[in-house]
Amino acid sequence: MKIAVIGSTNIDVVSYIDKIPAGGETRAAQNFHTAHGGKGANQAVAAAKLGADVLMVSAVGDDLFGKGALENFRQNKIDTSRVSVIEGVATGEATIIVEASGQNRILLYKGANDKLTPELLMQAADDLKKCGLIVLQLEIPLETVYAAIDFANENKIPVLLNPAPAVKNLSIDMACKCDFFVPNETELGILTDMPVGSREEIKSAAQSLLSKGLKNITVTMGSQGALWLADGAEEFIPARKVQAVDSTGAGDSFIGCFVEHYSRTGDVLESIKRASLYATLSVTRKGTQNSYVGVDEFEKFCVSL
Ligand code: RIB
Asked: What pLDDT digit, counting tens, does each position of 81-122 carry?
């Protein structure tokens, strides 16, 4: 089954520092790199590295970063026939600061991602109809996300929405049209305006969305694990304890692994368990897509536990 990832492509400019500079302060970073990123691209690459057949629907600028991003997709065997190159526009860029704890802060310039309009999306309609799962995040225009959800529903294609980064005005009615809704706890708090400081609070906030008609919610909770709630299902999947060095893109690795496994097996709980392990492994390594391993290395990690 082919998986369509409709989402962002960025170039990530990443600095590793011991302490965030105060306003007006200059501090030396301990490490720096540029890398391929964007929530959509990261999810596509994670799924592809694990063996999924992925169609990427995205927009990049007509600059060196856009060329590099296309090459990166090809190297990961991702179908780029629906990645548009937008003239006169820069590729999306994310300035990322990673602290010693592994915690990250991201400043995003959407660039070409903002040009992925519903019209451009619909040019991929025939290819999308051949896909068995559609995956969405929120680094492209919200109207495009909504158009993709409606398209998925009309064509009976299951759709997963990862509401990241959080958008306060996300339509809960549109979220309810998704088969899978996968926020992290911060995004859940922003969407529901409810406290999410404890597991019980997270559960109440997630339940409040179920009571509004959401079918299926998985809340990723970083080093704690993940909570899955659906009609008749409630599971907490604790995360393995590891030494985190860089949490950037861990949520994306979770989604990529989840969709790869789910598209093959249809087993939601097992897909969440594997996704949790894959994300755990990713935080033990520096980088985003660089921290995503292929099938063999992932299997070795699973066996070693
Ligand atoms: O989720 C991590 C991603 O968020 C980074 O790769 C960066 O591009 C931002 O979009």
From this structure: 999 999 999 999 999 999 988 888 999 999 999 999 999 999
Q: Identify residue 3 by its one-letter amino acid code.
A: I
User: Which numbered atom of ligand 1 lies nearest the CA of 106?
Assistant: 9
What is the pLDDT, as a whole number, of residue 300? 95
* Secondary structure of residue 100 in the 3-state scheme: coil
Q: Is 247 in the pocket of ligand 1 (CB under 6 A)?
A: no
- Retrieve residue 187's tokens: 């995004």
Displacement of CA 168 from its chain's centroid (Å) = 18
C-alpha–C-alpha distance, residues 217 and 237, integer Å = 13
Structure tokens at 249: 């893109």
End-to-end CA distance of the chain: give it in Å, rounded: 30
Q: Compute the mean pLDDT over every residue in the chain, rounded to the nearest whole number.
A: 96
pLDDT tens by residue, 176-223: 999 999 999 999 999 999 999 999 999 999 999 999 999 999 999 999
Catalytic status, residue 252:
yes
Q: Is the CB of 92 under 6 A from ligand 1?
A: no
- Tracing tokens 């915690």 back to the chain, one arrives at 103
Half-sphere exposure of 20 (CA within 13 A, CB side): 12
Q: Output the CATH code of domain 2-18+32-304.
A: 3.40.1190.20
- Residue found under tokens 């406290």: 195
